[in-house]
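Worked Example 4.2. Read the sequence first, then its C-alpha cells.
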Amino acid sequence: MLWIQVIICIALVIAVSSKLSQSADMVAEKSGLGRNWVGAILLAGSTSLPELATGVSAVNYLDAPDLAAGGIFGSCLFNLMILAILDIITGGGPLFQQAQVSHGLAAGLGSLMLGVAATGIFLADRGLDPVLGWVGIPSIVLIVVYLVSARLIAKFERRRRSEVLEQESEAYEYEHVKPRKAYLTFALCSLAIIVLGVWLAWLGDEVVKETGLEESFIGSLLLAITTSLPEVAAGIAAVRLDAVDLAISNVFGSNIFNMAILGIYDIVYIKGDFFAKVAQVHIFTAVIAMMMTSLAIVGLIYRATRPSRLYLTYDVLGLIVLYLGGMYIVYLG
C-alpha cells in the first residue's frame, strides 16, 4: 500500500508541476515581471515550501536542527544537479546557450547566501556565533539578503525587458488567457504542489524507515531527492514549454529560498543556538554548492558548445563530477 501511495503521489507531483510551470509562464507574461523573476521568486518559493514545512517539523518536534539543515544543503546541491539533468533532456543545443546571462545575478546572490550560512556554522563551532535574542545574526542576514535579492532581481528584470522592448517587440503566447485566470491557476497549483510535496516527503520518510535506511547516507540522499522532486518536475515541464529561463531561474531561486528557510529554522528553534547544533560537514557541502554555482555562472557567460565526442558540455560535466564527488566525500565522512 505504501508503494502504491508513492507512485500515485509522484504521478500527481509531475502532473501538477507541469501545470504549475505553465501557469508561472502565464503570470510572467501577464504581470510583466518576466520569467527570471517569476521563476526565481514565485515558482521557486512554491516548489520549495514543502521543504520549509518538513524542516520546521524536524526542528520543532524532532529537535533535529542538523537533520533539517542537512536537508537544505543537500537540496541546494541536488538543485544544481538539476541543471545537468535539464541539459541532458534539452534537444536544441546546450542548456546555457539557450538562457539569459542575467541568471548570473540570482546565482551570485545564492552563492553569497551559502557563504553566509557556512560562516554561521564555522563561527558557532568556535563559540563566536553572534545572536540577537535566540536568533543568530547570520540567520537575520540570510533573510534580509533574500528580501533584497527579490527586489534586485525584479528591478534588473524590468530594466532588461525594457531594453529588449526598445529593440524588438515581445511575443505574447497567452493573449487568450485573462490575467485573473492566470493568477488563480498559479495560486491553486502552488497550493496543490505544497500539499503533495509534504505528502511525498512523509512517504519518503516512511520508505526509508521501512527499508531500514534511516541511519544511512542512502536514506538521507533519498529524502533529499524526494523533497526536490517538485523542482525537477517543474524544471522539466518548463523546458518542454520552451521556457528555459523559467527552469533555470527556478533552480537558482530555489537555492536562494532554501537559504532563507535556514534563517526561518533558526527563528522557530527556541531551544538553543541553531547553528551550534549543525554539523561542520555542512560547510563542505556549502563550498561544493558554491563551486557548482560558480561553474554554472561560467557556463552562462562562456556559452560553450558541445565537444564533438561528448554529448555534455564541459561545464555541465563539471557540475555532475562536483555533485557526485561531493556526495561521495560526505558519504565517507
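Now turn to a second chain, presented in exactly the same format:
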Amino acid sequence: MTGQGPLRIAIISYYLPSTSKQGIGYQVHELATELTRRGHDVTVLSDCPPVDGAVYGHRHVRMTGSLRTFRFALALRKVDLSGYDVLHAWGDDYWLWRRRVPRHVRTLAGSCFEEARTIRGLKEKTRMVLLGLSEVLASVVADHTVVISPETRRWYPWVRDVLPCGTDVRRFAPDPSRHADHPVVLFVGYWHGRKRGAELARQFQETVLPKHPDAELWMVARDVPDDPGPGVRALGRLSDDELVAAFQEAWVFCLPSDYEGFGIPYVEAMASGAPVVATPNPGALYVTDGGRTAVVTPLEDVGTALAELLADDHRREVLAGAALERVREFTLESVVDRYEALYRGTV
C-alpha cells in the first residue's frame, strides 16, 4: 500500500492500560496515540474498556467467563474490518486467515513458548504452549510479522524483522531536581509471579537495608501485601505523570523478572536516568545491550548488586550515561516511523 495520506488502522489488543497491567496494553496505547497524532484514523479493538483521555477510537469486544483470551480471538472473526486499510494485531488474530484488509501486520511481543519454560503450574504451562502455537499460526496468517527482540526469533526463525517497543523520551527524561535525597530502589511489576517482586523485597530487606538503613524500595504494583516489611513502600497504580516522577526520583531501577520479551520499564528507567539492575532474561539482555548499559546478575545475587550500586556514585553515573545513549534505539518516534513503512508496504 503506497502513498503518503492518512490510513485507517485497526489495532487488535486484548489488553489496554484502562484495566490491565500487561505491558502490551501500554505499548498499544502509546502506538495508537502517536499514530493518531500523525493524522491516521486509529481504532483499538480490545476486551478492556477505553483508556481515559485516549485520542484514538475504541471498539469494546467484551468477554466474560473462562478462556476469555481464546474466545476473544474467535469473536474477532465476526467483526467487519473491511473499512480499514491496515490491521495491526498484537495478539489474537490467528483465526483471521481470510484476507480482510489490504495489509495485515502482526507483532509477536515475546514468545509464549519461552514463557512456558519459566512459568509455574501445569495449567499455566499448558495455556502458554497453546498460546505459543497460536503465535506460530498468526505469523503465517499475517502479511508481515515482526518480533520485539532478537531472542524471540529463536522460536520463530522464519520471522526476519526485529521491531522493538518504543518509549516516549519526551516524557521519560532525567530531571536531577527530582532525585531523592536518600537511596531509592524502584520496582514496576507484580509482587507475585514472574516479575519476582516478593523475592526482590526479601533480598532488599536481608541484604540492602543492613548496608543502607535509610534506603527504600518503592513498588509500583497493585498486589503488594498490606504489610510488605521494613523499607518497602507500596505505591499501587500510578498515573502517567506519577510514574515519570518515580523513575526520576529513583537511584536505581530493578526488575528481576524470570522472563521479559522486551521489558518496557527497563527503557523507561534508562531514559529517565535511573541505572538498571536486572536478571538475564531475553528482554533485559536486548534492551541493555547484553548488559553493557546495566547490571545484569542472577536472581540470587540481586540484593548484593543493589547494595553495591547504591554505594557507588560513579558507577551509577557511568551506567546512566551509557543507558541514555542506548535508549535512542527505542524512541517511540523511530518505532512508529518503521510501523508506518510496514503499513504502506515500503519495507
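Notes for the reader: The longest strand covers residues 41-46. The two ends are 11 Å apart (CA to CA).
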